[in-house]
Amino acid sequence: MKRGGKDIESLDSLRVLSLFSGCGGMDLGFEGDFICHRKSISPQSSWIQEVIDEHWVRLQRNRFRTVFANDILKEAQTAWLQYMDRFGYDKNVYNTKSIVDLVKEHRAGKKVFPKNIDVVTGGFPCQDFSVSGKRLGFESNKDHTGKLREDDEASEETRGKLYYWMKQVIDITRPKLFIAENVKGLVNLGDVKSIIQRDFAHAAGDGYIVLDPQVLHAGNYGVPESRERVIFIGIRKSALKVKALRALQEEKVPKAYDPYPSPTHACTVEDKKLLPPVVCRDVFVGLEEPDRTEDPSQRYYSQAKYMGTHCQGQKEIALDNIGPTIRSEHHGNIEYRRLSREHGGIITEELDAGLQERRLTPRECCFEYRRFRRIIRFVSHKKNSTRFELSASGAYKVIGNAVPPVLAYHIANRIQTLWPLYLKRDNMEEENIITVRNRNLQKADEAFADFMFMLESYLNEKAAAIPGTYCDCKSKELENVVVNVMKELCGRTPFRAEEIRLVSAQYFPDIIAEKYYGVEVKSTKENHWTSTGSSIVESTRDKNVENIYMLFGKLGGKTAEFKCRPYEDCLSDIAVTHSPRYLINMELTKEQTIFSKMGVAYDQLRNASDSIEIVRKYYREKAIKAKKKAMPWWLGTSAEESLEEHTDMNISLWVDNGEYADPERNKRLKAEIFIYSRK
What we know:
By secondary structure, the protein is an alpha+beta fold. It is built from 21 helices and 25 strands.
């Protein structure tokens, strides 16, 4: 893609695929490098590239580059191309086929969507969710082309379910992040919000974390319009850093990781630290009356007659307040720039000057485009013709559907800021883990940690979705479940499914992935996170495995739960049955592990020539410090001490943590120790 003979994409660019693009309000906001009112942006803001005059500034260019745009409205394409041409885009970037047809063409084998997409944006049709409409929602009476349905049943191809096809595009392109927007009314329409959020999360095989959608009021971001949009943001789990994924899955997302921009203007929020709202008078500055201008977008406007206060769109704009939501409707619903005194007009200084009653022009409806009259021609004639290429009617329609670019710029900048905090630098999933490991061991270990977090998330999501799933699994069954899930998830990681092996019958750990990585699977039928683990000797350990995670299933509740942690981080103590065995506690801090208490690293202990002696020394010192008069049989005892004393001592020493003080369990341990000690 070229601009001025230069490639407008760079190594630092983020590729955007835009759906339901309209005239490009969201796209323009993501691109940046446009002019807006100075009051819309803090005067000290680093966002300002150029101060044009006392009223207008040019904003900085962003990293985002639109590589594909789509909308079924010809008027939208015309407006989009007229402006986006300045960025070097040609008409082939914009596709006017419906999203349904585009997805079907892709399924048929046609190359439709560009590769290597970073961000997908889309404002799926909102009329069926709007409070100003019939609110048919999923039961829309129109098809995906906007025409009235001829059939009786709503389907996935009706206008109210076009978000489903946006999900299909996400399935196909697998962007790192997507943004979907719609009208505020969607959040109050039954379970629609939850259904859409859930369906988006299932894209690419449950591959996305979708944050709770937020309603953003444009007035709080320097836009002089009462426009509220609900924003869905989803991020691909496999692309996220582990720390970021954990933060985004917290009940309340930490502010540092919250992708939704904070308000900058006190329009609907009360905060003395924020800027005052931008009002209509601010952005109308310099606009001539329609009969005095050569700007077609200001000259041609709705001539619909006043229809009385009982109808929509019959109000006069309040110059010292924000404007109303511009609706994508017919001329009669366009508000008035001024009313006559007869109809209740109160802008007396203009009426006294002889200015007549009239409705807003397309230029005035687009509250952010005051200085764009030479660039964005919302109304334009065909070349060498008096006929319109884009009429005032078409302009009202596309403006009414648009996301305000300044609001979009806020969203884009917040995401741009968080991009390095959220996402891995390397697209490692295109490489084999062994290649990554040879280049950077730390990156490879991070990839395995990400893989394990995906595994934990998948199992928990499946268990929560279908209560009772996994609860009846025996140990071997659970191992098979885990290995199969790992193979399924491999497509989103640098790990290969064919290199995931279940070896529990012969080796420790139970599952080996790509030779160097392992998963030990443990579970309990109880409703707690503790159990007895493997031998500290690890005599059956695969000598190649260097990095092991514990996957623990708590199967005793109504819903199974899973935790996955580095193996050494969840070993709390040591108990003796046939041989010294680790005690598992999946809720430990690092300071509570047995290795921290002993003052020896896990790898140091397991690689020692006599690990038992290191453990024996620690517990002998512990017993002496506690002034125990008898030693457990395996620590070394005197001849006159009775076996019963040894056994009692063993139990009191090795099972002295309250969470293990179960009489029946202690009785069983005693019996095992007694049998072993008699051999």
